[in-house]
Write a structure and sequence with these properties.
The complex is a heterodimer of chains A (518) and B (426). Chain A is an alpha/beta fold and 518 residues long. Chain A has helices spanning 2-17, 49-52, 61-65, 68-76, 162-165, 175-180, 194-201, 226-241, 259-262, 280-296, 325-334, 339-349, 374-382, 387-392, 410-434, 441-450, 479-497; strands at residues 43-47, 96-98, 101-104, 108-112, 118-122, 129-130, 141-143, 186-190, 246-250, 315-317, 352-354, 360-361, 407-408, 437-439, 453-455, 458-460. Chain A has a five-stranded parallel sheet with strand order 7-1-8-9-14, with helices on both faces. In chain A, strands 3-2-6 form a three-stranded mixed sheet, with no helix packed on it. Chain A has a two-stranded antiparallel ribbon with strand order 4-5. Classes of the chains: A alpha/beta (518), B mainly beta (426). At the A-B interface, helix 1, helix 3 and strand 4 of A face helix 1, strand 2, strand 19 and strand 23 of B.
Chain lengths: 518, 426
């Protein structure tokens, strides 16, 4: 009897040990997927905020976990990839402190109001990540928000950029130096976006520095000269490949196809708006005098008319136009307008016109259009205008032309396009010369923006908030957008290096976060 | 010995779920050892379950059988296009049975049975790739069956009785594939209902055309378990009052749901030969088509719209058959040896393979023995190895943004079920 029980337990034990349900070829087995000719043991990602996993206008833990390099690194685990470290923030609030003082804002969340309306708002919470108490790198993810091409090689860059100061190995370190010090066997490089983007997101207030080869003279919102970009980029690729590493180079997407530039229409002024519609006759009567002067001066195309039946374009200030302010004042005085008003009109409308489909209004303009411009209001009151009249002449986009930082005009867009094309030619050429994978992010985003990309739970588009591809800052991808990016890069890796790295299901990655601040 | 025991206990703790659907065919060690045949086998009070009509042919006046099985089941999942994989880590199932019969007169026997023919315990790792379908489920149903067995003559008898069921269910899944708090904790719902009661019945007959041949048929009715006023607890919801998220205030609401325990028809025969040998064959037909959809009707309503929020989970099971073969050999006065095999057809249709019941066709291999301890007391041991082939399967009826989002991949399951029972007769 005892022996029988022993036998049974013995059998049971043997049975249990061999009883795990195992596939004939488990995906976790070495060799199920192939690394091809690439070695993923040490993957290092170099880049800017896109590489860091920045989203919703901030850097925070779950965003970093969904950065495209981290998504890729998890997939690399199937083909011999090693540990992938990231300079994780301390929270999911996103703000950054420098010695206790907040230097970067909290993340955006989609906040709902009691009336049911939704809108992005900065999360109200206390950030805990402080530059001074962060842990030094280097990390596999060397994405540094705000970095431009020539910043990566700059020694001591941490002094200028707290995001790098957070994890630089020493005060004199450069992003590239820290990256190379890890001896990557595989790398990705995605840099150059900010060389254009900061110009674009600031509405083109910066300078196109084409022809200026000294980046130390550049302002933060300038476009980098293509030769400066090429020199920096080429040196970085040389440094990253010096140890024999293979990798991928990612080109620059068309910044003007991101929601930051495509969400606010050029003609947002609805006659149905109770704050605007009733004013149209008065506004048109006032503008009629101005339009007469425009015609007289031979620029009738600058005429401003608001429609009673359809949405009208905002009035913008186009600094590429010849400033005819003085002539305008003279003509208006000649037409019988009092000198003070004529002078103000000349000042205000010397480079004004109504926006058209060639203009892009930035996302932040949506909260400004139709609002009193406080700065202009103050100026006008200072000039002696009664507050009521000053207010009437200070309405953004209606009476006061939208300022430069809210509008990308065609000449600015041309500068952006020219720089992007030049940079992308460089990236393409270097990828070919170095036999590295070339990822056409420009084309990938164009697909999302033009037709959308179907996935198992819908269609990924670039529509702000609802499209799924972009986070609430309108510039950076959502986790789902980053997953789409990771898949695109994996496609290139598999093709270029004969690997079979599995891709991810982008439907498993979230988009935007609902959260009520109240 | 100690070491082995320790190992066994350790493995018990670490071992995994019951594989395959929620029909758990472990209703007697003697029968299980013979491929879970028994509709035409007269050898113990296990007949209360297998064929009440046969009870009246038992030789002894009083027959009692009781036993327990340890269900160690494993499910592995993998998706080769993404590399996602998961294995279940479920607690051990321990289905029990107790049967007693008493022959009141030559033509009438009374009996009672307590058994657990349906149940399921499956636990995946939280937030695994299919967590929007299930994280874990624990389904229990205990059948209590008073029984009558009436002999018309030595050739034919009838039996049957009412069935009282009491059950419970606990089910947890994530609300969808992505919803979470700001800290990334996935939003989930737990459904819990206890003390669900229902009734059904069983009727059967046994026919003995010759001394060596028995033929049996048994029908057990379907029983619909209606959970009313169960508790649904939503957790890790985003802090948002937006109409885009319709969840009950406070995260808790009541729900109603129905789960069918399908009817089962069994016909079979047994044949005694060469004195000590017995061959048995059973055919089961389980009427799974009653399981069309798992619909959860939440009690709370959406503001303004006022409609109840429902969770509809298509199942669309089809009726399925099981073919069972068993062999018994009375080796010595002390030992009776048994072996069996069955082929268990899956009720799951293509596109409806839900990971909470990952059941494809399976082959069951069984063996066991009875050890006679004196005249009245027996120890019954059995062993079942349930083998499922690797299968490529998908569940297509999960809906997101109004469109079907299939959850697909490869599944591989098996189950290992040792069982021990006792029989007493006088």
């Amino acid at each position: 009897m005892k022996n029988t029980i022993k036998l049974m337990i013995g059998l049971a034990t043997v049975g249990l040990v061999s009883c795990d349900a195992e596939f004939e070829t488990p995906v976790t087995d070495e060799g199920f997927y192939s690394n091809g000719t690439a070695d993923f043991t040490k993957y290092v990602a170099v880049g800017n905020s896109l590489t860091a996993g920045y989203a919703d206008g901030a850097l925070y833990i779950t965003g970093q976990e969904n950065s495209y390099p981290n998504i890729m690194a998890q997939q690399f685990m199937f083909v011999g990839g090693g540990e992938f470290t990231q300079p994780l923030m301390d929270d999911n609030v996103g703000g950054l402190l420098l010695g206790g003082t907040q230097v970067f804002e909290n993340r955006f969340v989609l906040d709902s109001d009691p009336d049911g309306s939704l809108g992005p708002e900065r999360l109200v919470a206390t950030p805990t990540t402080d530059v001074t108490t962060s842990i030094a790198g280097p990390y596999n993810n060397m994405g540094v928000p705000g970095a431009k091409s020539f910043h990566l090689s700059a020694d001591g860059y941490g002094a200028a950029n707290p995001w790098f100061a957070r994890f630089q190995t020493s005060a004199g370190a450069s992003v590239l130096g820290d990256a190379v010090s890890m001896s990557p066997t595989f790398f990705s490089l995605w840099i150059g976006n900010n060389d254009i983007l900061s110009y674009a997101t600031s509405g083109g207030v910066g300078v196109d520095q084409q022809g200026n080869f000294d980046p130390s003279t550049y302002g933060p919102n300038d476009i980098t000269d293509p030769n400066v970009f090429a020199a920096a980029y080429s040196a970085q690729v040389d440094a990253l490949t010096a140890g024999g590493a293979k990798g991928v180079l990612v080109n620059l997407a068309d910044v003007t196809s991101i929601p930051y530039f495509t969400t606010v229409p050029f003609a947002p002024l609805s006659p149905l708006d109770p704050n605007f519609g009733p004013q149209i006759p008065t506004l048109n009567a006032t503008y009629a005098q101005l339009n007469g002067a425009f015609a007289f001066l031979g620029v009738p195309e600058r005429s401003i008319v608001f429609s009673q039946s359809a949405a009208s374009a905002v009035v913008v200030n186009d600094e590429s136009l010849v400033n005819i302010g003085d002539q305008l004042t003279q003509v208006l005085i000649g037409g019988g307008l009092d000198p003070l008003t004529a002078a103000l009109f000349g000042q205000q409308y010397g480079q004004a016109r109504q926006a058209n489909s060639g203009d892009l209004l930035v996302l932040t303009s949506s909260s400004e259009i139709g609002q009193i411009n406080e700065r202009r209001f103050g100026e006008l009151v200072g000039l002696g205008l009664p507050p009521e009249q000053a207010g009437q002449l200070s309405v953004n986009g209606v009476t006061f032309p939208m300022e430069d930082q809210y509008v990308l005009i065609p000449t600015e867009r041309a500068s952006i396009a020219a720089a992007a094309a030049a940079f992308n030619n460089t990236i393409d050429a270097i990828a070919r010369a170095k036999e590295l994978g070339f990822v056409d992010a420009r084309r990938a985003l164009a697909e999302v923006a033009a037709t959308g990309v179907p996935y198992d739970g819908g269609v990924l588009t670039s529509t702000f908030v609802t499209g799924g591809a972009f986070s609430l800052d309108g510039v950076h991808p959502s986790p789902r957008g980053y997953a789409y990016t990771a898949n695109k890069i994996i496609d290139v890796i598999n093709r270029e290096y004969g690997a079979t790295v599995p891709k991810v299901d982008i439907g498993n990655y979230p988009t935007i976060s609902l959260y009520d601040n109240d | 010995m100690k070491k082995v025991l320790f190992l066994a206990v350790f493995l018990l703790a670490a071992a995994v779920t019951y594989a395959g659907g929620y029909r758990v065919a472990l209703q007697g060690q003697k029968s299980l050892a013979m491929g879970h045949t028994g509709v035409a086998v007269v050898n113990s009070s296990e007949l209360v379950f297998f064929n009440p009509a046969g009870l009246v042919y038992l030789e002894n006046k009083l027959n009692i059988s009781a036993g327990v099985s340890g269900v160690f089941a494993n499910v592995a999942y993998q998706n080769e296009s993404t590399g996602a994989s998961a294995t279940t880590d479920s607690p051990t199932g321990t289905p029990l049975y107790f049967y007693a019969s008493y022959k009141a007169t030559d033509w009438l026997a009374l009996g009672v049975g307590v058994y657990t023919p349906y149940g399921s315990t499956v636990s995946y790792e939280d937030d695994w790739a299919g967590s929007h379908l299930v994280n874990n489920i624990d389904l229990k149903a205990i059948y209590i069956q008073p029984t009558l067995s009436v002999k018309l003559n030595d050739v034919i008898s009838f039996g049957g009785g009412p069935i009282f069921v009491t059950g419970s269910v606990n089910f947890n899944r994530n609300l969808n594939r992505t919803l979470s708090t700001l800290d990334g904790e996935r939003s989930e719902v737990t459904l819990d209902a206890k003390g669900i009661n229902a009734t059904g019945w069983v009727a059967s007959t046994m026919f003995n055309p010759t001394e060596n041949l028995r033929i049996g048929a048994s029908y057990r009715s379907k029983i619909i378990m209606k959970a009313e006023g169960g508790t649904a607890t939503f957790e890790n919801l985003p802090n948002s009052e937006s109409d885009l998220l319709n969840f009950p205030e406070g995260g808790t609401t009541e729900f109603d749901a129905e789960l069918p325990l399908p009817a089962e028809l069994t016909v079979g025969l047994s044949y005694e030969f060469c004195d000590k040998w017995l061959f048995a064959f059973d055919f089961n037909r389980t009427f799974w088509n009653v399981y069309e959809s798992l619909d959860i009707d939440f009690a709370y309503t959406i503001e303004e719209e006022g409609d109840p929020v429902d969770s509809v989970n298509r199942r669309d099971y089809k009726n399925s058959s099981i073919y069972r073969f068993g062999l018994q050999y009375e080796a010595t006065d002390m030992f009776t040896l048994r072996a069996g095999y069955y082929f268990d057809e899956s009720p799951v249709q293509p596109g409806r393979f839900a990971p909470e019941t990952p059941r494809n066709d399976s082959n069951g291999y069984t063996a066991g023995l009875t050890f006679n301890v004196g005249k009245r007391f027996q120890v019954d041991a059995s062993f079942l190895y349930l083998h499922f082939k690797e299968v490529d399967a998908s569940y297509d009826a999960y809906i997101e943004n109004g469109q079907e989002v299939p959850f697909s991949g490869k599944y591989k399951s098996n189950a290992f079920v040792p069982g021990l029972g006792v029989t007493y007769r006088m």
